[in-house]
Model the fold of this input.
Amino acid sequence: MPKGITEQAEVVQSLWNGSWIAALATGVVVWGLILWSVAFHRKRKNSNELPPQVRYNLPIEMLYTIVPLIMISVLFFFTARDQNYLTDMSQKPDVTVKVEAFQWSWRFTTEVNGKTAQVVGIPADNYEKGPQLVLPVDKRIQFNLSSPDVIHSFWVPAFQFKLDVIPGVDNRFQVKTLNAPGVYAGRCAELCGVDHSRMLFNVKLVTQAEFDQYIASQAGAQ
Done:
């Protein structure tokens, strides 16, 4: 998994790890039972006798009914808890970004303290050549997603989170960035047409001073 650059990414990583541990533990039990059955309950050579057949065993039936219910309940609890955290919009954002996805690129309009900066992209073969979204570190960012044509999906792998951009649907989310300056790849994660693979962009995390300078220069140029 890519190293997360938001507080929310750490929650996603924890849920992912827990799900894999549970899946592997279940796999070990299932594989073990299969191998045990193959080794000790197979038909013997030169024998017409069938292995013992087990039917209507109430304890076993209760076991394979109750145990999956417990597992599903535990996974549901942690998934619902983390989903509520990831979709929480109760806090006031420091920066708001209007994300407009279109065939086949992005328009980012960043708003902070009454100032705006807008970047419009074109299809690119490399995420470094796509439109660049500049954001400050250690700040809460809100993304408002919209599309004028078809369904897209806003995905920054380093966020470890993505959300569909659906025409007519008001999708939005917030993240709290970490102190991790750098340039991170972004892309559309929903097949949206012939140039879907070129719908690339990048997110640049900078210090607050660099971000203020960027907003001032962009606002002055508009």
Q: What stands out?
A: The helical segments are 7-40, 58-86, 208-221. The mean pLDDT is 91.
